[in-house]
Give the backbone structure.
Amino acid sequence: MKKTGLTLFVAVMLGSSPVGMAQAKPDYAIRYRQSVYTAILWNYLPMGDMVRGKTPYDKAAFALRAERVAALTPMLLEGFPKGSDRGAKTEAKPNIWSDFADFSAKMKSFETESKTLATVSAAGDLEKIKTQFAKVSETCKSCHSKFKTD
Ligand code: HEC
């Protein structure tokens, strides 16, 4: 068992919450949020291929992936506790914590637009899906350009 796993185990035994754990260990928070982004991208890319016509549109597959992204986005913000601007390799810019109100607002609109994408995807109108997919992509870009290094 790796050190982090063992520490988490001990924390659980002592009754502290996983969120408290993330706050205590910046490297753990960094790995957590990067994993969630990786899971989002895993689902996002195949949707992008369908939107661009690179692969045929499959209503059920698209709706499932949109559903997953909508479920994952609200898990992100807790992965940015104070002090997690360092501690492991990270592309998070320090202005996240000095301008947390704007960062949170951008995260909120990512959540909202993703939820709408899930709803629109379940209905299955490809033109509406394309428009909404572009809106979600816009929220990725507007946050990355201000809060993420390249
Ligand atoms: C509110 C801000 C915000 C939004 C919205 C956002 N991101 Fe990010 N993203 C970040 C930050 C900050 C990092 C850097 C995390 C780190 O390295 O600690 C990041 C990192 C990533 C990474 C790299 C993860 C890794 O393994 O290092 C991927 C992939 C990613 N984002 C994809 C997306 C996609 C796709 C969207 C939209 C569908 C999106 N992000 C929306 C802020 C955002």
The CA atoms of residues 51 and 130 lie 6 Å apart.
